[in-house]
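Hello,

Our lab assistant flagged a job as stuck in the queue for most of the afternoon. It eventually completed. Since we weren't sure the result was trustworthy after the delay, we are filing this so someone can double-check. Below is the sequence as submitted and the structure that was eventually returned. Let us know if re-running is recommended.
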Amino acid sequence: MAVYRGNPLNILHTIGMDELYPIVRIHFVLTGNFDLKRFQAALLACGRAIPELFCKYVLADNSFVTVTDDLTGVLFQGIDPDADWAKWDLFCDPQLRVYLNQVETGQDVTIYLSHILTDGAGAKQFMTLLARAYNGDDLSTVENHTDIDWLHDLLAQHPVEVKKGADHPADPLTMPQLADSHDQHYRTGALHLDEEFLSKLIKAGHATGVTLNDLFMAAYGQAVQRFSATEQISLACPTDMRKFIPGSPELRVANHTSRYNISVASDPQAPFATAVQAVHRAMAANKEQFQCLESVKTLVDNYANYSLAQLQQICEENYHVRTISYTNFGIVDKAKFHFAGCQVTDFDMLGSYRRAPMFQVAVSTYDGQLILAYAMLGNDEEARLGKNVMLIMRDLLTNYALEYAE
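-- returned structure --
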């Protein structure tokens, strides 16, 4: 059995697993001439390029150990992914799980990746690699990079002060605990907003000097505030540290994410633009100060000298599982994520399933569409509440675009 050593950032998502199983979920439908054998060969090629995909994770020494050299435990057909995935054990099974289901419109594909192994940006790199292999590219010389020498250099260049309790807001966002929480089961929901909507929102952001991410965070914060007795928007915003790595971009299916923490005053009765500017100022200050490094500094600095339990406690203090969370996967490039002879439709990308009243909205864009989505363990009423959060976000963003788009 081959053994592959992990790095400190793999430990980030080994905490709070009773509350949140660490996965990234990708879903799409392939219409047209789907070729199962090509898809199977592509998965095997990805497994050779990124051998940890076919490994179990060993927490005791932070390593990945091979458990299969074929698609056993990796590819499943004709099985409901939302119902079946909970059988997955990252400490015994491969770090990749793929479900194929024939539907009226084509081949329904659901991919789960271990968040212990990789992050959202790494998942997108895997998606691109899978598409390349399916489309006939030779991956035999592809090498996956998981080193963090660049991170040690970055921490030396930008010393940050780790503020105690910074990742534990005093006045957090919450969703209501419903009195009747029976019949909870795994489910997902997505809201697709068209290219015209996204184009207007981009123009409005440019006109007001804010980023799309500022707009999404402010809209999400204010939407949750409708159901939460707080006048603060406190959110953690994951950020891909690969952008700080010098040199040409490399394949890095690994955990290279840290996060910015913001906590800003937000009066739900005030104009939405006020919250947008508050979030923008907080994020701009964080970026200027490299505040994201606070979330990983203590872990990286002490990895060689601390016990696993101590390292997990460090993660809990600086990277803990929030009841209300947010993630932005950014753009999934259609030019890189396509399958020969097929069209990709119904795309969405998610974090893990959260048991209500825990909740996360995940944002992504594909083929000009803006996609808001959630994965939840909840009942019908809790799912409607989650959908309402996304509809409030849509309305806030729509009105902002109408007011400020040039």
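-- support follow-up --
The delay was a queue issue, not a problem with the job. The result is valid. The longest helix spans residues 380-404. DSSP finds ten helices and 15 strands in the chain.
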